[in-house]
Amino acid sequence: MIVVASTAACTPAPGAAATGPTSPPGNVTARMGGSEDVTAALGPWTLSGTVFTPEALPPTAMRLVRVTPPVPITRARAQWAKHARDGKPPKAAKKTAAHVLASLLYEQAAADPAKKAEPLAEARAVVGALHEAAGAGGADLVSLEMAAALAFAADDAAGAQPFLAELVRRFPNEKATGPARAHVAFAHLRAGQNADAAAAVSGVEPSADAPELAYVIAWVRFRKGDAAGAAAALTLAASAWPDAAYRDPLARDYIVMAARGGVTATDAALVIASLYPDRDLRFQVTYQLARSYQLAGRPAEAAAAIDLALGTAGEQLGATESARLKREAETLRTLAGGKPPVEKEEGDAAAYGQAAKATIDARRQEMQACYEHVLQGQPSLAGPMTLTLEVDPGGTVVGATSAPPEGDEGLAAVARCAVAKTRSWRFPARPGGGVARLQAAFDLAPAK
Question: I need a labelling partner for 320 at 20 to 30 A (CA). Which of 107, 278, 388, 391 fits?
Fold first, then answer.
């Protein structure tokens, strides 16, 4: 909707929001030397925000226990059955019998994934019986690792959590505790339990020596709104990622956090290159990085990422596609330079409203980025937001306020980010002088 009024008395347009001050200190119209102001109510624009979810953490690895000489699975079953009947707390021989049989069953399941359900169920029952026989707080480290890994192998991530939590609680200084702690936090993150996830990694600093922990710490920071800290932690995780099968979701997470965390395209491209030695894949992911910069409201870095992608592709891309990407990069550089999409002067009030709408259309991804930044920690956040901008005759934003007013939480935090972004926008010039008061309405809602 566009409602435009040309007035000498600076009265608001019909239907325009009336909250907040409408001008900076002083008489803007007099300062500009003009006698004709324009008020335009624009929008609403719908911003549908995405709540990102971690997906890249690989399952806990299975600890395999073998004996020399090797025993067939039938004999391993018989040995375990003998120990299982004694009803005694597990000592070394009983633990070994259970661990060897569970290992053989796991390998059987891995050899034929289509028929994995039965051997995995048997293995989980064996380790579960050992855990029960040990009593409260008596299970050994290997049994807990196995129980969690078998649950993951059976596609039962929830079933792994009690064993992982016990492992973290009882063996806090063991090497295996790092991945276990990461999975506890990971489960909380996927359930939207951000405070519990933060508690699970409290006091732990991200390190390339523990990439799984660095990964979940990145997500904890991202959910708290610390995109720069998230990108730094995820860079460490990417430098030593343990499982190539989970590289693609890791790269997706990285380009989202890098784009929102202030990382330059040049630095982000180095991380992508370390993940993707293949040039074709590197080109595709670097171009996705450019798209992520666009969605984060960083057009200059988006243009730089396109340039880097073109450099990766070389002559294989083809002249037509190469020319298209160069045009796209040039358009982004123009936007980053502050030029409005409508560059000619607009004197007519109705025409100026349309030109102002085009400018906001071109920069609305910046509003989207502000919304999604806050949405990660408040996934149900929704509602209206109105920005009131005052634009001088040269197209410079000289005043900006919001409804709700700027603040630290919820829609007020979105408004604070949005107001800061708009102060660098440039609108078309107006030869008639006066102030253009633009009221831009946005409807914010999480994507379904």
Answer: 278
What's the predicted TM-score (pTM) here?
A: 0.81
**Cα angle 318-297-252, degrees, rounded to a multiple of 5:** 65
Evaluate whether residue 106 is within a structural domain: yes
At which of 175, 190, 222 does a domain end?
175
Query: 8 and 70, same structural domain?
Result: no
Distance CA 180, CA 387 (A): 46
Q: Residue 342 falls within a domain, yes or no? A: no
Instruction: Using the predicted structure, report yes or no on whether residue 24 has a pLDDT greater than 60.
Output: no
- CA gap 403, 113 in Å, rounded: 56
Residue with tokens 């073998």: 66
CA contacts within 13 A on the Cβ side of 417: 22
Domain assignment present for 300: no
Q: Same structural domain for residues 47 and 123? A: no
Are 142 and 60 a contacting pair, CB within 8 Å? no
List the domain range (segments joined by +) for residue 84.
64-175
Q: Name the domain boundary from 123, 153, 175.
A: 175
Reported as a single tens digit per residue, the pLDDT across 51-67 is 999 999 999 889 999 99
Residues for the chain: how many in total?
448
Least-confidence region, from 20-24, 96-100, 160-164, 365-369: 20-24
Q: What angle do CA 108, 109, 111 make, to 5 degrees?
A: 65
- Exposure class string for 222-239: b at 16+ Cβ within 10 A, else e: bbebbbebbbbbbbbbbe
Strands 436-446 and 397-403, sheet pairing: unpaired
Tokens 């633990």, located at residue:
95
Rounded CA-CA distance 258/267 in Å is: 9
Domain count, the chain: 2
Q: CATH number for the domain including 69?
A: 1.25.40
